[in-house]
Structure formats: C-alpha cells, structure tokens
Design a protein that fits this description.
With about 280 residues, this protein is α/β, with parallel strands linked by helices. Helix content is about 35%, strand content about 20%. The chain is elongated, with a radius of gyration of 20 Å.
C-alpha cells in the first residue's frame, strides 16, 4: 500500500496530546524544591549488547506514516513513541536512524542499529534477524460512516456492496473476495478513497488497519469497523545472536503492554476503538 503523508491537522492534535501527557507525567512524578525533578536513568544493558553505551539506537522508516515521519526536522510517529517507551524502560537514551526496508537487515548486521521497528514490514528473509516481540497487529480492515464510535459490519453480507480501496494495494484483492471484484472501486490514494466514502460513493473503504485508522481520525464520521483478514504481527527486529538484547527488549515490551503505556500511545495515533483492535497480546 502506498503511504499517506502526515496531515498537519493530525500532527497538531498529537503534539497537543503529547504536551498533556508530559504534564501528567511530571505531575505524577512529583517535584523537587525548585519545582523540577531529575530522573536518573540506570541502564539495564550496556555495550556490546547495545551499539553505544547509554543509548538504544533504533531504525524506523520515515516514509511509513503513521509509524514514522518527519515534522520540522524531527522524527515523529507511532514507532518513534514505542521506541522511546522501550528505551525508557531499559534506562537508555534514544537515537533514531531513518532506514528503508531493503537496508534494515544489513544495518542490524553491521551494528548501525540495535533494533528495527515494524520489522515485519521489511519483508526480509534474513535468517540473521529474529524478533524481540510483537507490539501491534495489522491487516486489511473496513472503515465506514458512523456518527458514534461504533460501526457494526456483517462481513457475510458484503456481496454486491461497493468498497473503495487504494489501487495496487493488497486490500483490493481482500475486499474483492467479500464483495465481488467488480464492486471494488479503486483510487489513487487512500485519502481519495476516504473522500469517496464521505460522498457516499462507496459503503466502506478497505485498507491496512493502522494507516487507515490514523487517517480516519481526521474525519468526524469515519470509524474503524472490522478486520477482513487474519492480521499479521508488527514486530521488533534484532540480530539473532544478540540474545541478551532480545530478552531485554522483550521484557520492556511486556512492561509497556502491562502498564498501559503501549495502549495509550497507540490510541494517541489511531483512536481508542482501532487501538483496541490492533493491540497485540
């Protein structure tokens, strides 16, 4: 699927949410005599487990919204926030490296990064890389119009229903198996498909759940409906030989799942309903 760019409206909303979250965190942490509190980080892993002492170096793909993108020369996105939470759990600072899918395995092998977010999206077959765990699930989902936050979709009754999808995406094929290929209306971009949904030219839009849910937050009446296929895990890639790092990241991941940080982070980017649907157990 072609990637949608970060919308300015959405970025402003998210930055506002981040400011509130930071304020809440500071409030919960408490303050010293001067009104501030320094939190000393104690690294749980050191070199050579990580490339650089005191730092978790993470590869993200800035052309894959909402997982990562650039705004005012800074990297932002869902993967960026998850990586930051993991680094914090490990007592490490975070360094981000912009990567593309083709180079991900090589950068891990060459020691340029400690791990890669959204490893599954690289489609790599490298046996040198394994996963430290799954943090989300993604797959083809249906989005529709609802003025509430609930959209009931009967997938067994989609035959003959007009469904929009982005041309060239896997979603075209998936939607076609439900509604009939002649009823799939394709568009050059996902934004165009959502605009068609707004105009009632189609009943639903089929697309990847996470990018679709991110885009849907820019609309007042477009909401997540249901998955159309079995979702795949969104994973963290690490070198298979770095067993200590794999274990440490896996433990940190379980912590941010258990304490709600991952769910809050995901909801910030794609909304509560979709976040619940894509959370990985």
């Amino acid at each position: 699927m072609k990637n949608e760019v970060f919308s300015l409206k959405k970025i402003i909303q998210i930055i506002g949410c981040m400011a509130v979250c930071v304020a809440l965190t500071v409030g919960l942490a408490g303050c010293g005599p001067t009104g501030t509190k320094d939190i000393e980080m104690t690294p749980t892993v050191t070199s050579p487990t990580v490339v650089t002492n005191g730092t978790l170096t993470v590869g993200v793909n800035s052309s894959s919204a909402p997982f990562a993108g650039e705004y005012k020369n800074e990297m932002i996105g869902l993967d960026v926030d998850v990586a930051a939470a993991l680094a914090d759990e490990l007592g490490l600072k975070l360094t981000l490296v912009d990567i593309n899918s083709q180079d991900a395995a090589a950068l891990l092998s060459e020691g340029k990064v400690d791990c890669v977010m959204s490893w599954n999206e690289t489609k790599s077959t490298s046996t040198a890389v394994t996963t430290a765990g799954s943090y989300l699930k993604n797959g083809t989902a249906l989005f529709g119009i609802s003025m509430g936050n609930d959209l009931q979709v009967n997938t067994s009754a989609l035959q003959g229903v007009k469904i929009g999808a982005q041309a060239g995406s896997v979603s075209v094929t998936t939607a076609g198996t439900y509604c009939g290929y002649d009823n799939v209306i394709t568009y050059n971009t996902l934004s165009e498909a959502f605009e068609a949904l707004e105009k009632n030219e189609v009943t639903y839009v089929a697309c990847d759940a996470i990018p679709g849910a991110y885009l849907a937050t820019s609309y007042d009446d477009i909401v997540y409906g249901t998955m159309l296929d079995s979702p795949t895990d969104v994973t963290i890639g690490v070198l298979a030989t770095k067993t200590d790092l794999k274990t440490a990241l896996g433990n940190a991941l379980q912590t941010i799942k258990g304490n709600g940080v991952l769910e809050v982070t995901t909801s910030k980017w794609i909304g509560d309903r979709a976040a619940t649907a894509v959370m990985s157990s």
